[in-house]
Amino acid sequence: INIPLRLYSPLDAISSSRVLSNQLVVLTSEGEELFRISPWAKYCHKHPDSNTYDWIHWDPVRPFLYQHTRPKRPRSLRIYEAHVGIASPAEEIATYTNFTLNVLPKIKDLGYNCVQLMAIMEHAYYGSFGYQVTNFFAASR
């Protein structure tokens, strides 16, 4: 099906480096506006009363400055697959802080040199374990 579409942003002039509720709009040939999140969005915010998301555009004035030297490349790759949200003995959704402090040291001690984080992409329904992704480029909180 060949449907002529036009993309535009409802925010033409951006004066701030942080813009809330930024969306792309797909205008169909029938004049219908379809609001979509940019596929390149780095961060999305879920509305508490629904399963809809807004793209939060972040464009800081100063680029990120790395504080540490790049690690040396290992001779062989040893991958540990982990899910941050279930990486806790407590009956709770675990946090990145918990994962950093309590899980990563154990992974390193086991001799792994690579971590594959599962279900890190933004997803609306937690019970899906991240398989029902709402944005491929935004890390879930």
From TrEMBL:
Signal peptide from the UniProt entry: none
Superkingdom of the organism of origin: Eukaryota
GO biological process: glycogen biosynthetic process
One GO molecular-function entry: 1,4-alpha-glucan branching enzyme activity
GO cellular component, one term: cytoplasm
Protein name (record): Glycosyl hydrolase family 13 catalytic domain-containing protein
Gene source species: Hucho hucho (huchen)
